[in-house]
Specification:
The chain has 378 residues and is an alpha/beta fold. The protein has three domains: 184 residues, no CATH class; 43 residues, no CATH class; 112 residues, Glutaredoxin (3-Layer(aba) Sandwich), CATH 3.40.30. Helix content is 49%, strand content 13%. It has twelve helices and eight strands. The strands form two sheets. It has a five-stranded mixed beta sheet. Strands 2-1-3 form a three-stranded antiparallel beta sheet, with no helix packed on it. A hairpin with a 2-residue loop joins β7 and β8. α1 runs parallel beside α6 and α3 packs across α4. The protein starts with a helix and ends with a helix.
């Protein structure tokens, strides 16, 4: 009898905690993705490419619409989280949440089980999760959902009913979509990438600390772990493990700038004051602002701060040569990996200002600065 007496109050409190966590996590997850909708779109493209290879070309249809889907799905997470916290149409909201959880659970399980996508992008670039961690996170959310769904009788009070509830959900939708659309047309509000303003690229190309190892050795059927490789030759090597894999690996591993002949210019680019015009791909680049871009490049070349303008692209030499003539873009140009350029800036084209390899400024093509602004940053 005492157990029965105390079970309902405990269950009521536990349900409310699960309800609160479920709503907050969905809002947080959606907002983090809306902070960088292009990054979320790139992750969706990665999933669609994998599925189109494994399950048929149907999924390739979604690749051109990845940015729209990025904002839609991220905004949906925010709106559903708000609806849960308001307890607005709670039963229907929970069914939609279940659909999302099952969908994301399938994605993360498939990625983890078959090693397809190494980072799910669940929390954008703010929190990196391994595939299995992502899957277990989805299972925890599914557990929270089950508690809330099974105990809705403890959540009868609705904080926004009727017209007021519709108004709140409409506002939440407008705010979420607005956040995503603005980030899409400019740059992320918060930059969590290795090339954010203030970061020292040459420094990040080096390990934070020396790698530390432990060695598993074997002798007469006995295994033993050593911090140093044993000098006793009777021990036979079995395996080796890096104790500090994250800190012993550079944060930036693939930054490389080269010319059409393959000659490396990375060290040159990371010295002095440089204004890099990043053209991720000539075919996809927005061509409307190249008159203003050309004027900035010309003004920068005459700067009293001796800023050298350079162009970096991932297009082929032939494709980019035709492109630069089409948009009347003059200047020295180099080449880099497409993935690196997408990580450097979420804008095509976009500008990065460097001072001895330190990122001093980043600009979307909708926010082209003037030469005096660049001088102020150096």
């Amino acid at each position: 009898m005492p157990l029965l007496r105390y079970a309902p109050p405990f269950m009521k409190q536990f349900t409310r905690i699960c309800w609160l966590l479920l709503g907050v996590v969905f809002i947080f997850s959606g907002l983090v993705k809306l902070n960088d909708p292009i990054g979320t779109a790139l992750k969706l493209e990665e999933y669609f490419e994998v599925f189109s290879k494994d399950f048929g070309s149907f999924f390739s249809v979604f690749i051109p619409h990845a940015r729209v889907l990025s904002i839609f799905l991220s905004s949906l997470e925010v709106v559903l989280g708000v609806a849960v916290l308001l307890r607005w149409m709670l039963r229907q909201t929970l069914w939609v949440l279940l659909g999302l959880l099952v969908f994301f659970g399938f994605l993360t399980f498939y990625s983890a089980a078959f090693n397809k996508v190494t980072d799910c992008g669940c929390f954008g670039d703010f929190i990196k999760l391994t595939p299995w961690t992502s899957f277990f996170k989805d299972m925890v959310l599914l557990g929270l959902w089950a508690v809330v769904f099974s105990n809705q009788r403890y959540l009868r009070r609705v904080f926004a009913k009727g017209t007021l509830g519709v108004m709140y959900i409409t506002i939440a939708s407008a705010v979420a979509i607005g956040i995503g659309v603005r980030a899409l047309g400019h740059l992320p509000y918060f930059d969590f990438l290795p090339y954010k303003v203030g970061n020292n690229i040459p420094q990040l190309m080096k390990p934070q600390e020396q790698a530390r190892y432990q060695y598993v050795m074997e002798r007469n059927g006995e295994s033993k772990t050593f911090a140093e490789y044993p000098t006793d030759s009777t021990w036979k090597y079995k395996s080796m493990e890096v104790l500090n894999p994250e800190k012993s690996k550079p944060l930036i591993t693939d930054f490389s700038i080269f010319d059409a002949d393959g000659k490396d210019h990375t060290a040159e680019v990371l010295k002095g004051n440089k204004l890099l015009l990043i053209v991720q791909g000539a075919a996809e680049a927005d061509r409307d602002r190249f008159k203003d871009i050309g004027e900035l490049m010309a003004a920068t070349a005459k700067s009293r701060k001796q800023i050298q303008p350079l162009i970096v692209t991932s297009s082929s030499p032939q494709e980019f040569d035709a492109f630069r003539h089409d948009v009347n873009l003059a200047g020295t140009y180099y080449f880099a990996d497409a993935t690196v350029l997408k990580s450097m800036i979420r804008s095509n084209p976009g500008f990065i200002l460097l001072q001895n390899g330190v990122v001093k400024g980043k600009f979307h093509y909708h926010d082209i600065p003037d030469a005096s602004k660049l001088e102020e940053l150096l």
